[in-house]
Amino acid sequence: MRVLLVEDDEPVAQSLRRGLVRYGFEVEWVSTGGAALSHEGPYDVVLLDLGLPDTDGLDVCKALRGRGDVPIIVISARSDETDRVVGLELGADDYVSKPFGVREVIARIRAVMRRAQPRGEVAAAGPDTYGSRLTIDRKAARVRLDGEEVSLAPKEYGLLSFLTEEPGALMSREQIMEAVWDANWFGPTKTLDVHVAALRRKLAGAVVIEAVRGVGFRLEIAEDDGVS
Ligand code: CA
What we know:
Elements: E1 2-6, H1 10-22, E2 26-30, H2 33-38, E3 45-49, H3 57-67, E4 72-76, H4 81-89, E5 94-97, H5 102-116, E6 128-130, E7 134-137, E8 142-145, E9 148-150, H6 154-163, E10 170-172, H7 173-181, H8 190-202, E11 207-212, E12 216-221
Parallel strand pairs: 1-2, 1-3, 3-4, 4-5
Antiparallel strand pairs: 6-7, 7-8, 8-9, 10-12, 11-12
The chain binds calcium ion.
């Protein structure tokens, strides 16, 4: 999925871009309203900061909406409620306020893409995509690797589903056991290692599940190595 990120604040843009790329999005970053409007795309969703150096983000929002149906998520440091209302009136699909986490932004993107689905093929969303090889259809609880369905045991799916909520984040054994197995798990966590091993085997090359000694695990989306 291609994201047009319109944000003049470089540290914010860089960290958002890093986070989105980690989740398998392609990100085109521009830092002015003019560059956003002259960008030829194609892109599937726009993340639009309202406070831009050259134009008011709301005008950019209106102009983009005038051209088509691409979902627009407005990001703003302004806490003013009127911005939110005006942004939505001008055709934005959703709104996030700074400071925000990458997870929140991704949740919003996925939500607007799901809503946008009937609007046209460009916005076809469906399963969540991780890198170029792995997709997870969370509604149907189905996992595909290179388009082929991967057969996972229920807890393997639960573990993958949990770890892919935030690729790159270190999750402790306790957090994982609580989330995937039982809310009050005090027993040995050997079963976790068995399930991690199964996921590594079944999803080899698409994800890397790194063990962090004494703490837990960290899932990374494998870089596209050009294997066809
Ligand atoms: Ca700004």
